[in-house]
Amino acid sequence: MEPSNRTAVSEFILKGFSGYPALEHLLFPLCSAMYLVTLLGNTAIVAVSMLDARLHTPMYFFLGNLSILDICYTSTFVPLMLVHLLSSQKTISFTGCAIQMCLSLSTGSTECLLLAIMAYDRYLAICQPLRYPVLMSHRLCLTLAGTSWVLCLFKSVTETVIAMRLPFCGHHVIRHFTCEILAVLKLACGDTSVSDAFLLVGAILLLPVPLTLICLSYMLILATILRVPSATGRRKAFSTCSAHLAVVLLFYSTIIFMYMKPKSKEARISDQVFTVLYAVVTPMLNPIIYSLRNKEVKEAARKVWGSRWACR
Prior knowledge:
The chain is built from 13 helices and 3 strands; from the N terminus they run αβαααβαααβαααααα. It has helices spanning 3-8, 21-51, 58-75, 78-86, 94-127, 132-135, 138-164, 181-185, 193-206, 208-225, 231-260, 269-292, 295-311; strands spanning 11-14, 91-93, 173-174. 36% of the residues are buried.
């Protein structure tokens, strides 16, 4: 990094909702409750998936990865945001901003790929049931999940380094409640074309491509389900698909709005509300939509909880 860049900006001010004190007082208990539910719900999913042998399947392996992602993603910014909601000092160091930006990008990007992988897993389970154990082996599960984590981390580190190397010329007030990369780029006084190009390529690879794979998987699943003679079987499969598609729709629609819309000179409060929506609400709802309504997870949770009490 250029020395002038480091000396000119040693910390950033996250303006966030500071112009709306009433909104801050409303958001603190609301976001605190949602963050607590996110931690408890996703931790419970990971614990039950590990402790109950019946859930040692590809579906719950990927679900455990999704829960870990949701915990990591919200933890990159929610604790600091809660502190800033109650404090008049809303600063973050230059290094802290870079780390927050990188981790948020990495976990968010990984979730995009993981949702597509989960759709592919459901396609194999429903459309290729006899070959499913061979096609979706444990090694393939580890490879798909591990590759997603590593590739998205590498992508996010690259994007963060390029963005944070730009000169800021003393501009240090970020009109956002996190070190969101688009908000930081608005402070740069240099050429952002390289960073914009990387973000555009990343947006294309992580938005339309996985979403197309998800839609294709579910079109094939739907065609298979319609050939199932049992009404009960069709109902169960449709319920699973609708739950997954509901989360996909919420997750992708908000991200597409944030990253594919035309850039504006000034950050708007609506942008931050949408960020809270996909960054806090979706991870909170994922355990409920994916698992807590699932009979296998409920039975496994009761078994684990019952064994804990029996040991006491």
